[in-house]
Amino acid sequence: MKENVIKNKSFAFALRIVKMFQYLQTEKKEFVLSKQLLRSGTAIGALVREAEQAESKSDFIHKMAIAQKETNETDYWIELLFQSAYLHESQYKSIIADVTELKKLLASIIITSKENRNDKK
Predict the structure, then answer these.
(1) Considering its fold, how many domains does the chain have in total?
(2) pLDDT tens per residue, the chain (121 residues)?
(3) CATH number of residue 95's parent domain
(4) Which own/partner contact pairs does 28-35 have at CB distance under 8 Å and 24+ positions apart?
(5) DSSP assignment of 65-115, as one string?
(6) pLDDT of residue 88
(7) Where does residue 79 rank: exposed (0-12), middle (13-18), buried (19+ CB within 10 A)?
(8) Which PANTHER family does the UniProt record give (predicted)?
(9) CA dihedral 63, 17, 5, 79 (to 10 degrees)
């Protein structure tokens, strides 16, 4: 069976987000932004999993597009946490690299899926 890269990477990313949330709550005593980060950062993988059971190609594309939006939102919260000094530069650079990779993967999946859908029409 072929490895599902986006499924694995989005799950690993969600684990990182959970750990970052725990760090922000316990070490930095930050409770509002960290909860927003937790919600959007873990939603990406949940949506990817949901897309596995899509009812149609259009449904699959739609779920992946929502995952892409959640990735953009997560990017926003991470940037805000960094700019407000809750994250050190090394923490920021490490996690933002993962966000960028997820954005590229999701964009590629959506584009390819739309092309494949149009080829069948």
Answers:
(1) 1
(2) 789 999 999 999 999 999 999 999 999 999 999 999 999 999 999 999 999 999 999 999 999 999 999 999 999 999 999 999 999 999 999 999 999 999 999 999 999 999 998 776 5
(3) 1.20.1440.60
(4) 28/86, 30/81, 30/86, 33/77, 33/80, 33/81, 33/84, 33/86, 34/81, 34/86
(5) HHHHHHHHHHHHHHHHHHHTTSS-HHHHHHHHHHHHHHHHHHHHHHHHHHH
(6) 97
(7) middle
(8) FOUR HELIX BUNDLE PROTEIN
(9) 80
Res 121: pLDDT: 56
CA nearest neighbour of 10 among 59, 82, 54, 74? 74
* pLDDT tens sequence across 14-24: 999 999 999 99
Question: CA-based diameter of the chain, in Å?
Answer: 54
Rounded CA-CA distance 1/74 in Å is 31
Which range of residues forms the domain containing residue 15? 5-119
Confidence at residue 2, expressed as pLDDT on a 0 to 100 scale: 83
Residue 108 one-letter amino acid:
S
**Distance (Å, whole) CA 3 – CA 88:** 33
In whole angstroms, what is the distance from residue 110 CA to residue 19 CA?
29
